[in-house]
């Protein structure tokens, strides 16, 4: 369907407009009929007809001829004139009269010609304006049915008006039905800061902002023309100040509308006073009617495009459209030498919302989150739904990467979602990739942002996580561990290492800590920090935990038969302690292998996190285990955020000072004071302290001075397999490096 067909079948939008009494159609303008109706506006007394002027000139010359005839036709008269001492008075009167007539006629003709010249200049300027408007109208008509969506159409309209209209700034916005804030926005010109300030005033218009021309046009559905901004109000309003600061002296705001009930505004700014004459306004009014027809046509054929390019469930652009826009943005960023950011956003508590309120509520949350993010970003940025309930953000016009953390923190702040009668707080976290540092391709940027998001989830970070090759390697290794761990458990590929605990004065081995390793052919030795969380996800952690306790206790029994007297320390997780039956299960396991708690001393180590996280089952298990004769040790104390008062929450026997504090001893006065105070406090609580990670003689000597009695670390021995530990029992000062 052509634009001509549309005009024949559909009516133009009726736009009320005060300054113009009647509209002029675009067809009339294009046929140049309108130009013939332009009045010259010359006053009657200054616009005498050419015939009257000609008659005056003829009469003047007749009078001149008659006068000359009277003077020179007769010889007698000539003699009298020449011989007379005085020139006859009547001849002076005739000559003076003729001179005055000539002067008067010349003056009239000259004034008329000068005035006509001025009018011609003015009309040339007006014709140039109208011709410029005609060019704009012709170009806009050519693109009305070529664009796929309203945003592209408005952007092209702004480009054409800015290019051919000699205006300082042009923007257009389109609102959703029943809204007054444009959601689709296009602009052209170097006044983006002005536009941003303008939309801030849209969000909460004060009395000083309500008369702002574009806002007034949009609210009243009526064209607004101001040809001299400086004289609009003697006491300058906020919007006047903003316009004058940007050099805008004239403004025209035209109302847009579509068949689907969406209203909008097209706003033109000029740096000249009286930039919008009545004829030009009529021309633009006709142009706006054509744009309205084009917008309605785009909406009609937009349905098929919408289904192909949007996620219908959440009313957001889909992955295909996001890739296309991202590719275009990359091309622009390359020309402008700017950064570009891709963020894949995940709604942290979405699964809980779906479980509580249903799948429809989940879709509403994703839709509302997308709308929330769109309100925070600029018109050149994009929000899209890319599957798995993830939302993608494209952020452009980034001149410095240092701006990104601030921008992202503002975007990812939690907000309140109203679900019927309930209020739900929506929290988000995101993975980030940056052009050109991470990739120069749209697909790779999206892939890397997804990987950063997965890494963020894995590392427990809640806000945003930037892509890095190191973390990508961690994710790849994690996936390999996940896929190969079940077979490793089945084949028994895990090995126990033992690290002695020494008495600092005598240097004798008094205890031994059990450490688990998985020797992997390609990844090397994999630590429990890497594989235990995955084992817990796969349901394999209980098997591994039982295997560690059983194997370590059997080894302890073997050493006990050799006459070795020491305590065995085994690491357990807080998840085990949260099991109300943990103490009973441990007792059953020890009975199965005939491990005697009376003959051998067993110590269970648990992370400092147990002090911060209060749980009734943890406390109950602590009490049961100590009644059984098992000692409890708090590991890595000082690494978490527990306070001294937390030490009184649970009963325990030993504390291990975190390695970071030990490394700072002798180098940091505060660390020394903390360790001294801790040793004194624990002695008062009848709790033993073990320093782990001791690596130098200086550390050992200072610890002895401060009153610490037990330590472990590479100064004494690295973790060893069972058969190598026996030599340390015989020679406690030997170090195996």
Secondary-structure topology with pairs:
Blueprint: H1 3-9, H2 26-30, H3 50-72, H4 75-83, H5 89-143, H6 150-165, E1 169-174, E2 184-188, H7 192-203, H8 213-220, E3 224-226, H9 238-245, E4 250-257, E5 263-270, H10 278-309, E6 310-311, E7 316-317, H11 319-336, E8 339-347, H12 350-357, H13 359-376, E9 382-385, E10 390-398, H14 404-411, E11 415-419, E12 422-426, E13 428-435, H15 442-459, E14 464-466, H16 469-491, E15 495-503, E16 509-520, E17 524-526, H17 528-538, H18 541-561, E18 567-571, H19 574-577, H20 582-592, E19 601-607, H21 609-612, H22 616-628, E20 631-637, E21 654-657, H23 659-664, H24 669-684, E22 688-692, H25 697-706, E23 710-712, H26 722-730
Parallel strand pairs: 13-14, 16-18, 18-19, 19-20, 20-21, 21-22, 22-23
Antiparallel strand pairs: 1-2, 1-5, 3-4, 4-5, 6-7, 8-10, 8-13, 9-10, 11-12, 15-16, 15-23, 16-17
Please provide a brief summary of the model:
With 737 residues, the protein is α/β, with parallel strands linked by helices. It has 26 helices and 23 strands. It has an eight-stranded mixed beta barrel, surrounded by four helices. The chain has a five-stranded antiparallel sheet with strand order 2-1-5-4-3, sandwiched between helices. Strands 9-10-8-13-14 form a five-stranded mixed sheet, with helices on both faces.
């Amino acid at each position: 369907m052509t634009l001509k067909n549309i005009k024949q079948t559909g009516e133009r939008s009726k736009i009320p407009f005060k300054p113009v009494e009647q509209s002029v159609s675009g067809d009339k303008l294009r046929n140049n009929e309108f130009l013939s109706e332009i009045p010259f506006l010359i006053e009657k007394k200054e616009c005498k007809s050419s015939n009257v002027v000609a008659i005056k000139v003829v009469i003047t010359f007749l009078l001149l001829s008659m006068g000359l005839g009277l003077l020179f036709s007769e010889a007698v008269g000539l003699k009298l004139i020449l011989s007379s001492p005085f020139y006859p008075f009547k001849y002076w009167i005739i000559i003076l009269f003729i001179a005055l007539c000539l002067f008067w006629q010349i003056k009239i003709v000259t004034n008329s010609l000068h005035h006509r010249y001025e009018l011609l200049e003015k009309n040339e300027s007006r014709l140039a304006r109208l011709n410029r408007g005609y060019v704009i109208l012709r170009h806009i008509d050519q693109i009305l049915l070529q664009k796929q969506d309203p945003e592209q159409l408005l952007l092209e309209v702004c480009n054409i008006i800015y290019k051919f209209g000699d205006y300082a700034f042009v923007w257009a916005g389109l609102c959703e039905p029943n809204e007054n804030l444009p959601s689709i926005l296009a602009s052209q010109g170097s006044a983006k800061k002005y536009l941003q300030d303008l939309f801030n005033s849209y969000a909460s218009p004060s009395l000083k902002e309500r008369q702002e021309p574009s806002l007034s046009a949009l609210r009243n559905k009526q064209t607004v023309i101001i040809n001299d901004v400086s004289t609009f109000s003697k006491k300058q309003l906020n919007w006047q100040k903003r316009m004058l600061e940007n050099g805008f002296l004239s403004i025209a705001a035209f109302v847009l509308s579509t068949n689907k009930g969406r209203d909008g505004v097209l706003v033109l700014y000029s740096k000249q006073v009286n930039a919008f004459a009545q004829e030009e306004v009529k021309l633009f009014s006709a142009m706006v009617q054509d744009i309205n027809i084009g917008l309605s046509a785009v909406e009609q054929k937009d349905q098929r495009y919408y289904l192909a390019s949007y996620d219908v469930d959440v009313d957001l652009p889909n992955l295909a459209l996001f890739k296309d826009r991202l590719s275009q943005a990359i091309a622009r960023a390359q020309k402008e030498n700017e950064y570009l950011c891709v963020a894949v956003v995940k709604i942290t508590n979405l699964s809980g919302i779906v479980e509580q309120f249903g799948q429809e509520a989940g879709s509403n949350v994703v839709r509302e989150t997308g709308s929330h993010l769109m309100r925070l970003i600029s018109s050149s940025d994009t929000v899209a739904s890319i599957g798995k309930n993830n939302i993608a953000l494209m952020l452009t016009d980034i001149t410095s990467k240092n701006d990104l953390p601030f921008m992202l923190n503002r975007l990812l702040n939690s907000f309140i979602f109203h679900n019927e009668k309930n209020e739900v707080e929506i929290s988000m976290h995101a993975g980030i990739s940056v052009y050109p540092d991470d990739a120069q391709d749209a697909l790779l940027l999206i892939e890397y942002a997804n990987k950063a998001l997965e890494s963020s989830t894995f590392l427990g970070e809640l806000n945003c996580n930037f892509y890095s090759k190191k973390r990508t390697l961690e994710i790849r290794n994690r996936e390999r561990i996940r896929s190969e761990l079940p077979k490793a458990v089945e084949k028994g590929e895990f090995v126990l290492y033992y690290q002695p605990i020494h008495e600092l004065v005598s240097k004798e081995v008094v205890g031994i800590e059990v450490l688990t390793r998985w020797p992997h052919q390609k990844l090397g030795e994999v630590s429990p920090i890497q594989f235990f969380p995955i084992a817990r996800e796969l349901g394999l952690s209980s098997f591994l935990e039982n295997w560690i306790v059983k194997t370590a206790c059997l080894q302890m029994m073997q050493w006990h038969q050799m006459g070795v007297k020491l305590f065995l320390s085994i690491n357990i997780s807080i998840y085990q302690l949260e099991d109300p039956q943990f103490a009973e299960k441990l007792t059953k396991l020890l009975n199965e292998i005939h491990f005697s708690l009376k003959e051998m001393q067993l110590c269970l180590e648990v992370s400092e996190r147990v002090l911060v996280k209060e749980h009734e089952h943890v406390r109950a298990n602590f009490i049961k285990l100590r009644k059984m004769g098992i000692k409890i040790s708090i590991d890595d104390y000082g690494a978490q955020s527990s306070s001294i008062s937390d030490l009184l929450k649970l009963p325990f026997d030993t504390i291990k000072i975190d390695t970071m504090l030990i490394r700072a001893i002798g180098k940091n006065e505060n660390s020394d004071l903390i360790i001294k105070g801790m040793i004194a406090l624990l002695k008062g609580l009848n709790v033993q302290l073990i320093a782990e990670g001791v690596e130098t003689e200086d550390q050992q000597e200072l610890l002895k001075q401060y009153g610490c009695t037990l330590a472990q670390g590479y100064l004494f021995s690295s973790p060893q397999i069972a058969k190598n530990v026996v030599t340390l029992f015989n020679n406690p000062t030997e170090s195996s490096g």
